[in-house]
Amino acid sequence: MQGIKRKIVYVGLYEGFAIVAATLGLAGMSGHSVQNAGMVAVATSAIAVVWNLVFNMLFERWEARQTVRGRSVARRVAHAIGFEGGLTVFFVPLMAWWFDTTLWRALLLDMGLLVFFLLYTFVFNWVFDRVFGLPAAAMGEAVAA
């Protein structure tokens, strides 16, 4: 499976499993009900999808203006920190408000999600590629724009 179909299936499965896992994790970490935590999980998923589109567009616009081309380790680290930092800016106030808790407690909840998603993303991508095959770009094939 390649192209836009692959991307749609990827995002749908990734976010679907993420919402279920985040719901259970947030319920456990916050002491709130699964229904209450589920609302936050759905909201954070929607925010993450939109932020991913916006952040990557802005990052690539910045990247195009750089004299040094390519994606070094430092540039990839900057990308990851910028993306996750942006999510933290959105998620912490949302969780503090929704769970009626302090910003510090909400930050701890967010850090729990960050650690989970680091591992989840690695495992999900590995399994997705095993089930659906690698994308053309990873196999060295030309990719139509």
| Uncertain runs | none
Helix proportion range: over 70%
Question: What structural category arises from helix and sheet content?
Answer: mainly alpha
Q: Span between N and C termini? A: 16 Å
Taking all Cα atoms into account, the compactness measure Rg is: 17 Å
Q: Could you describe the largest sheet, including whether it forms a barrel?
A: none
Q: What fraction of the residues are assigned to beta strands by DSSP?
A: under 5%
Instruction: Label the overall shape.
Output: globular
Describe the structure in your own words.
The protein is mainly α and 145 residues long. It has one domain. The chain has helices at 3-30, 34-64, 73-98, 103-132. Helix 1 packs across helix 2 (34-64), helix 1 (3-30) runs antiparallel to helix 4 (103-132) and helix 3 (73-98) crosses helix 4. The two termini are 16 Å apart.
Topology readout:
Layout: H1 3-30, H2 34-64, H3 73-98, H4 103-132
Helix pairs in contact: 1-2, 1-4, 2-3, 3-4
